[in-house]
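Narrative summary of target 7.
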Amino acid sequence: MIPKAELHCHLEGSITPALARDLATRNGLELPAGLMGADSLYAWNDFLSFLAAYDLVCRTLRTPRDFGDVLYTYLAGVAREGAKYVEMFCSPGRPAALGISYGAWLEALEQAIDRARDDFGIEGRIIVICIRHYGPDKALAMVQTMVAEPHHYVVGFGMGGDEARFAPADFAPAYRLAHDKGYGCTVHAGEVMGPESVWAAVRDLPVTRIGHGVRSADDPRLMAELARRGTVLEVCPGSNIALGLYPDRAAHPLHRLIAAGVRVTLGSDDPPFFHTTLGMEYDNAGLGEAGLRAITRTAIEASFADAATKQRLLKEIEP
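Modeled conformation, tokenized:
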């Protein structure tokens, strides 16, 4: 089995239908009848209905234990597919809205990472993400909390949300603080919006990675610049196709990006919603064993883990 590593997956977006049912039962909730189809998969048919389904699933989370169980379940699942390392996007906004403290939330996630390592040998880390359409002030406040309460498993800062809202430069204060305190930085860009979104991100933010970034393939000059900088794109083909950005794998720009010298990784984004897994992303990438091993090596090299952990993982994935 080819060893794998993942840099782009959202904690709440990793909740499988089976786990959603378990969480709902535990917390005395009922899932809406239309949330899952006859095939027991999440049912949605456009971007807005995807967001609605996502929100309904997130409502099953009520306690720190719930968040920890989500992370442990995901790490266990991808470890069975050969994953050695995962960085999970985790937003403290949702637990905060439930009255869960930042420290209690992180403690639950830490326990999940430790259990998964003990049980499956997989290494996990946390990237704290803000939500773009909530604005720069909330992003800065989030980073201020992150740096005031450092945790050894929190290794980076990122941003998801509506790519059309605000400009990357608006979030520069938050990103500068995270970068200055030694955290790795990534940002979602070039997914729904075009190459200009990626240009703005690499120009105005101290990022070494771009979440998605696939629209960079529309601009040869941008691909050349990304290759020159060594900026890594966290590419999620299954997500892009499910959301209608590309009609199929043949039309997806993964291979064009690689041919242009852009460093890429493979991620699953919100896997059960897009009917994919990290293993499926590797299997469906259309790359040979050497190419897939190179993807894993790039992911570990581009990860925000400490140098010792990176070196250990790089040795583990050697053929």
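Residues 242 and 274 are 6 Å apart (CA to CA).
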